[in-house]
Amino acid sequence: MPNPPHQAKNPEVTELDASAPIEDIVNIIKRDGGIIIKDFVRPEDIDQIYEEAKEYWGKLGSYVGKLFDAADPPLSGLAGKSTTFAHKAINHPTFRETAKALLREEHTVYRDGKRYMTVSNPVLAVSEAFNRGSPSTAQQLHRDDMAQHFDHLEGSGESSLLGLLVAGVDTNFENGATQVIVGSHKWPEAAMRGPADRSLCSTCEMKKGDAVFIIGSIWHGAGENKTNPPQRRIIYSCHMTRGSMRADENQYLAIEPEVLKTFEPEVQSLLGYSVSHPNCGHVDGKDPITILGSKEDPFGYGSFQGEEVSPPIKASA
Questions:
Q1: Helix (H) or strand (E) holding 122
Q2: Chain segment 41-91, per-residue pLDDT in tens
Q3: How close are the terminal C-alpha atoms of the chain, in Å?
Q4: Strands 179-180 and 75-76
Q5: What are the phi and psi torsion angles at 234 (to 5°)?
Q6: What whole-number distance in Å separates Cα of residue 214 and Cα of residue 181?
Q7: Which residue from 224, 207, 137, 212 is spatially nearest to 170, judged by alpha carbons?
Q8: 8-state DSSP, 86
Q9: By three-state DSSP, how is residue 12 classified?
Q10: CB 97 within 8 A of CB 122
């Protein structure tokens, strides 16, 4: 899809049909960092996702932070609110197999005098919906794999996760379509290169039901919604992360909630009812320990956003 005129000199985001070979999709993501998948979900399934999610939109309150506008916070836990999204998008064969191809890990271990090949397949990291009105500000450009503390080596393009953005409505530059910097997944850490320059962005224009697959290391962000009369831009999203990036034992099911509530808050935090900065492990943007009736952050680790470092990093074109 051609970029708008002011982005004409930037690379376009490649498009392929959802029936394209997985190898072709994977190769484009490795080259560019992202790809638009046409006709990913049927329009009637998009309508069903909206029907399943709409009762939750009015219950969100306000967002506190800089990544989203205060009036339009993300809807967390989408997989549990829309079975259609869970089955038709997260488990879509094209996305599922692409995630495996990019994130699957194989490792040889030695045990009992024998050699074993072990495999770790990707798992769901987060599922959210974004419903942004007009006017809304452009989202800060960011990398999605910051929650996993993934180190970016220049030229690598590797990441801890693969993101999915499904268009709930037609998206374009005017209503805030996702902006990506093609090839930026191969950049080194911002501490070395500087923050991303928005003038390098390209627009992921999509029809309702299309999707964007983006590797977690690509610089991207929602665009400004400046439609008049106002239109809402709706995106349904999830991240798949490397399966090894979780605990050996599932503590959330291994210990009954009634027992957990009798533990000291520090112990609850150590068992996983805590947030790894930035924002990894939250529930609806809050410390999960509060669900157990305890006060957040019992160890005093501080804000989910992390501690600001001075002096700020200078931008680099």
A1: none
A2: 999 999 999 999 999 987 776 666 666 765 678 888 899 899 999 999 999
A3: 24
A4: unpaired
A5: -115, 130
A6: 11
A7: 207
A8: I
A9: coil
A10: no
